[in-house]
Amino acid sequence: MQTISVQSIIDGLHLEILAGGNGLKREVSNPSLSKPGLELAGLFDFYEHDRIQILGSKEGAFFHWLNTTDQEIRVRMLFDKQPPAFVFSKNVIVPEIFLRLGNEYQIPVLKSQYRTSSLFSELFAFLQAKLAERTTLHGVLLDINGVGVVITGASGVGKSEVALELIRRGYMLVADDLVEIYQREKGVLIGEAPPLLKKYLEIRGIGIVNVVYLFGVRAYRENKRISMIVHLEKWDDLNDYNRLGLEEVKKTIFDTEIVHVTIPITEARNTATLVEAAANDFKSKQLGYHSAKDFNQALDDQIKRNKQRSSE
Fold first, then answer.
1. Which of the chain's termini has less CB crowding within 10 Å, N or C?
2. Catalytic entry in 14, 64, 186, 243
């Protein structure tokens, strides 16, 4: 089970620590969030205390309708269940009792600069990404004209050299050597580099290079939705490679299918151009134009015309 510390959440969303600073090492394992409105009203039967508690304008207004005794009892009951943290949205004045009990229970009380709806969506997206199940793939992930392409192949086949040429053409590196992948939702895979490898590309004979320093900030992005995998392999005359492209091969990661293309390479073939063409062909299919099907239809029409002429 993936976990993330409250401190990491604070750093990721630039939250302000108001109280409970001794509890920043608390671990969060549930990406879902809770707004404790019912709990403030006195109903704790459904209190989801394993979630971060979000308090917005509605919760803040309702709190002030309570008398002092109910405020003390119900807020203490919120803290008794040991939730990971309390986060107040931008326009909410944080009641003193939350600050006092935050320090007493060592549970962080935090303040965001987002309004409630934006805070909810931003924090949920952040937690979902950090807590999602992950797998890794050896290869290079690039953003080629908006298409997330993972280039795979045997060691020494030239993946990083191809990536370097594509970056020189204006495309963006996401990850080299090892791509971390998580499923944001069914059908959507996101790839990124491990923290230590971000922005770096390994070129044999040259070494490790920082693409941002070499090509500028436009040469790199933090993560990218993966649309296809391009596998590079040395040309083998015994293999029957796809010549028309009518059939799509797919690879399943988690429960999402990704288009998988194998490109045979030789010294005479410009591999970077081939990968670029594969990405652009994928994009054209997404926009509704399928070159292979268009050619096949034209071929069928020509055959029918020839049959008609021969029968006349």
1. C
2. 243
